[in-house]
Amino acid sequence: MSISKSNLKVIIVGGGPVGLTAAHALTKAGISFTLLEQRPSAVIDAGSNLVLQPEGLLTLSSLGILPQIMAASTALGKIERIDHKGRSIGNVDWFLNMAKKYVNAKYRHDDTNKASTGHAPRTLSRHDLTSVLYNTLPVDKQANIIPDKKLATITSTPTGVVVTCTDGSTYEGSLIIGADGSHSKSRAQMHSLALSSASTSVNEETPFLTTYNCLWIRMPISATQGIIPGISSETHGKGLATQFFAGDDTAVLGIYEPLPEPTKKRQYFTSADEQALVERWGHVKLLHGNDLTIAEMYAKRAQAGLVTLEEGVLEHWSWGSKIVLVGDAAHKYTPSTGSGCNNGMVDACLLAKELSAALEENEPIEAARIEAAFARYQNLRKDVSIATCTGSGRATAMATWSGSILSFIDVHIIPRRIVQNFIGKRITV
Fold first, then answer.
1. What is the pLDDT of residues 90-132, one digit of tens each?
2. What pLDDT, on a 0 to 100 scale, did the predictor assign at position 8?
3. What pairing do the DSSP bridges indicate for beta strands 32-36 and 145-146?
4. Handedness of CA 171, 175, 179, 185 (dihedral sign)
5. pLDDT band at residue 185, thresholds of 50, 70 and 90?
6. HSE-CB for 194 with a 13 A CA cutoff
7. I need a surface site. Which of 219, 232, 344, 395 has the fewest CB within 10 A?
């Protein structure tokens, strides 16, 4: 492949928060893109609420859209922690400590080379985040976002790639950014192409391991008494943990339950499966000094869904100069530390920066330069992704008291101020 900068065209597969962030970052870099989203719209009114951590907020700030994000989100403070019977096991100040920490300069992705203090973490709905990301794109770039396009196959050509969708439509480009989540079709196609080309860089076909399920529930704040925007609460105990976050209008709950045995096989759930989980754990309280239970919140739900929580980091994040993965397609964590979306947005911006650096000269762009940009991007992100995946898994295991040592640490060690200060200032995203 040898093309000029003006002819480089990126196809982004997946229009969630990470794919839309990639669209912003490529726009800022002056790189043309087409984004294919399988849903009817890139503004998604589905899924659990999200927590934006300091580095995620810095990413959005570097794209010039932090004011809109701040207006659409709610600041989070201390996290109240209780056991299954509603008894306090000590509050933690992760979010406040994260707001004070300095961000390591090597993970920065804006035009400065200075470390910067972070912002306090904030929560907002997936709908509000995708709405801000979409509406702040230039109008001509919004036209490059094409809904109702589900990836079927990727074909490699001498000059780039051809994407064929399930409706028969095709799109030609120079390369693909796969931002289509933990069950990524881009990753599956990359695996097939790597095998067929006899590449030595082939990932496992099913690379992620599932140890936990998660039932998420969204409820209007007005549906119950005593919930103030910004409240964060966790319930910990043997076999089950919950995380509760309240925004201005809605509250969201994540319920983590270990599987009987870890598996790499994808599972699908029905409403009957949701109700069975609620029957098992409906009595568990969610807030200190408040009688709200899992069963009550589920009964008052606006939306809910039961999903698997895959975990893992790919060995290879790209194939040649044709396909590169970002976000959950490349690395997947349990959401206990809220790092998934934040990491994906950082991925997208750093990848765009590396591509832009490869395109600085106006001479024809050889495939080797694109491959080198992909390699630099992976080198910047892989170690921190492994550390974050490990930390998220440990946090979930500790919250579900998966062993006597972990439960002891959770109840007797974590509440100590010196421990919180030490850990909070070292949380990576």
1. 988 766 665 555 344 333 444 443 444 457 788 888 999 999 9
2. 87
3. parallel
4. positive
5. very high
6. 21
7. 232
- pTM for the complete prediction? 0.91
Domain limits at 363?
Answer: 2-76+115-207+311-399
Token pair, residue 6, equals 């003006």
Query: Is 410 part of a structural domain of the chain?
Result: no
- Rounded to whole angstroms, the Cα distance separating 171 from 211 reads 37
Question: pLDDT by residue (tens digit) across 67-93?
Answer: 999 999 988 878 899 999 999 999 887
Q: Token digits for 154?
A: 């990727």
Distance CA 351, CA 126 (A): 23
d(CA 31, CA 401): 48
Six-digit token pair at 244? 């509760």
How, if at all, do strands 102-103 and 116-117 pair? antiparallel
The candidate with the shortest Cα–Cα distance to 97, out of 422, 355, 388, 335, is 422
What CATH number did the domain enclosing 327 receive?
A: 3.50.50.60
Nearest alpha carbon to residue 212 among 275, 183, 255: 255
Q: What one-letter code names the amino acid at 288?
A: H
Measured at the CA of 77, the angle between CA 76 and CA 82, to 5 degrees, comes to: 105
Q: How many domains does the chain have?
A: 1
pLDDT in tens, 285-333: 999 989 999 999 999 999 999 999 999 999 999 999 999 999 999 999 9
- Give tens-digit pLDDT for 243-286: 999 988 889 999 999 999 999 998 899 999 999 999 999 999 99
